Amino acid sequence: xxxxxxxxxxxxxxxxxxxxxxxxxxxxxxxxxxxxxxxxxxxxxxxxxxxxxxxxxxxxxxxxxxxxxxxxxxxxxxxxxxxxxxxxxxxxxxxxxxxxxxxxxxxxxxxxxxxxxxxxxxxxxxxxxxxxxxxxxxxxxxxxxxxxxxxxxxxxxxxxxxxxxxxxxxxxxxxxxxxxxxxxxxxxxxxxxxxxxxxxxxxxxxxxxxxxxxxxxxxxxxxxxxxxxxxxxxxxxxxxxxxxxxxxxxxxxxxxxxxxxxxxxxxxxxxxx
Length: 273
Known about the structure:
- It is a multi-pass membrane protein.
- This protein has helices at about 1-15, 20-45, 45-75, 80-85, 90-95, 100-105, 110-120, 135-170, 180-190, 205-220, 225-240.
- By secondary structure, the chain is an all-alpha fold.
- It starts with a helix and ends in a 32-residue tail after the last helix.
């Protein structure tokens, strides 16, 4: 019984971030994750690695030990350990531990480079805290609401860059750097997004005309996904504000600041006596 009670308390702290203990746990975990990422970033700088490499390695092992304990606690107190272990966040938690273990057995520079990349995947653990932040919920809701519109937009853009890239391949050809249709599509993407690396430049007048058309098109559509997302974000925030429902007449969608129903006048929030 005591063991079950301990597991329940542990579950509340580790998994339920809407409780005081859970919030403290997540805040501490967030700081540890950020610190571990800073260590990985610093270790990638050659001058710092040569001077403080051993110290950073010890710190990294310390982080690995902390993450291993946290992973073990989650498996221990989870009602369905296997489901957690094979979930997205469970796999991310596991990847936070694996690099530190691999670094002990593989000291080759090439393997260490791969391990550093894997360590950076810890940043995805920050996503675990997003569902408990109200503002992040607005963003997630807006992303879900705008998903289909953005997909349609991306399909349209993909069609445009394919058409423009093919035209440039025909007009300019390999002699001017447009050696294939994929290379020409790459040029169209770079030009449409107004990045303009300058590694491939049209030389003929028709090619320059097409290039100008691509740039103008880029300026005209670059703000489209931003507008879609902003509109969905506004809808999500308004939906949150209009969530109160009257328990008497069942009228929904009252303003967040409302205390009484706009239809029947009864109190929206009844205190239990």
